[in-house]
Amino acid sequence: MRLLIPALALLFGTAGLLGAATTVEVRVTSGDLITGEVVEETATSLEIKRLVLIKHKAVETTITLSKSTITTRKEVPAITAQYETRRASAQSTLLGQCALARWCLDRALTEQSLVHTQQAEQLDRFSPLVTKLYTDLGYIKINDAWVVESEHLASTGKVKVGDAVMTKEEAAAAKEQTIKAGANASIEQKIRDAEWAIKTGEKKLAEVTERRDAAKSELAKAEADAKGATNRKEQIQKRQEARAGKPQNNRNQNQDREDQASLQQANADAGRASGAQKKYEKELENAEEALAKVKASIDKAKVALPDLQKQLAAASGKPAEGADGKASDKASDKPAVKTDDKPVADGKPKSRFGGE
Questions:
Q1: Could you write out the DSSP letters of every residue in 46-109?
Q2: How far apart are CA 272 and CA 224, in angstroms?
Q3: pTM exceeding 0.70
Q4: What CATH number is given for 174-333 in this structure?
């Protein structure tokens, strides 16, 4: 029996004895299409062996998929068999060869992709489709010929920075220049931010100052109203006390009714004035707080601006603008808006409800 298995293997080959590997094409919930040979399958997972491109090289890897992520699945011919079928039917045109080369590259068939890329190049060597295929295959154009990029760089001691090939010294200088340009750009942005903070801050300072002064004025009026209502209440109460104990007559009774109505009105006015006082006290507090923040923001920007300008001048090798420390932007040279307290009225505020 032990001799039978080797004999069968020699007769039919290992694939004939064990069965050829099954190639499947599955689409997963992310939308990716995965093609490869089934390595192992369980009730919940599927392990697939496939070729992928890593740094322009075909590398055999395995991936294990959860069956819950598979949306479609079908058995397909082996990748090499699919290639032969496509090659046999591919048109000998630029688009036909480029399409087949791209199909091969997407499945990590790099050798086959190179063959069809070269055939496409013979049809149109300037086609951007050809250029893209060579680039994706890891080639670079040197002296009008496509060569393997890694081999060329290794043989010349050069490196690739972006799309440019240069010496290591040139790459180091370019890196330093990029860092310097980035630092300069950062300083320039900070200068613009400081100038903008000064320009807009001064405008906001005027608006907040106006709001603060308006709150002060309204608060003074509310305080005058409250004082006027209090004075009227006191006057009414004095009149009522003066009539107390006197014989009642029609005139006194009428006066009592008028005073009672006036007292109710004075109490209502006092209540409104008290509410207005609280409102404008809060508005004044908020305005004062906003004013302090705006002033601090402007002062901070004005202090930072000269130093930033010196930093930029030193980095770029140019003489600093405004070496005396003054800002170059005219907006920053403007005098701050005068914020001294303004008189709320000519003389003493008058009560809107009578009285002083």
A1: EEEEEEEEETTEEEEEEEEEEGGGEEEEEE---HHHHHHHHHHH--SSHHHHHHHHHHHHHTT-
A2: 12
A3: no
A4: 1.10.287
pLDDT at 77 over 50: yes
- Cα–Cα distance for residue pair 62/50, rounded to 1 Å: 6
Mean pLDDT to the nearest integer, 105-130: 96
Q: Which of 98-102, 153-157, 246-250, 296-300 has the highest mean pLDDT?
A: 98-102
Structure confidence at residue 319 (pLDDT): 62
Q: What confidence tier does 350 reach under pLDDT thresholds 50, 70, 90?
A: low
For the chain, give the number of residues. 356
Dist. CA 24–CA 12, nearest whole Å: 24
Domain 20-75: assigned CATH number: 2.30.30
The structure tokens listed for 141 are: 């154009």
CA distances (Å), origin 198, targets 150, 308, 310: 53, 14, 18
Beta strands 45-54 and 33-41 are antiparallel
Alpha carbon distance 283, 215 (integer Å) = 6
User: Which tokens in the block code for residue 324?
Assistant: 């005396």
**Residue 34 and residue 60: Cα distance in Å, rounded?**
13
Mean pLDDT confidence for 239-250: 77
Are the C-beta atoms of residues 146 and 139 closer than 8 Å to each other?
yes
Q: For residues 34 and 120, what is the distance between their CA atoms, to the nearest angstrom? A: 27
Contact 149, 140 (CB under 8 A): yes
Which of 354, 216, 350, 204 has the alpha carbon at shortest distance from 291?
204
Whether residue 97 is predicted with pLDDT greater than 50 in this model: the reply is yes
Phi, psi of 199 (to 5 degrees): -65, -50
Q: Give CA separation, 350 vs 43, 118, 233, 346, in Å.
A: 91, 97, 17, 10
Would you say 93 and 123 are in contact if contact means Cβ atoms under 8 Å apart?
yes
Cα–Cα nearest to 222, from 279, 289, 267: 279
Tokens of 48: 């697939």
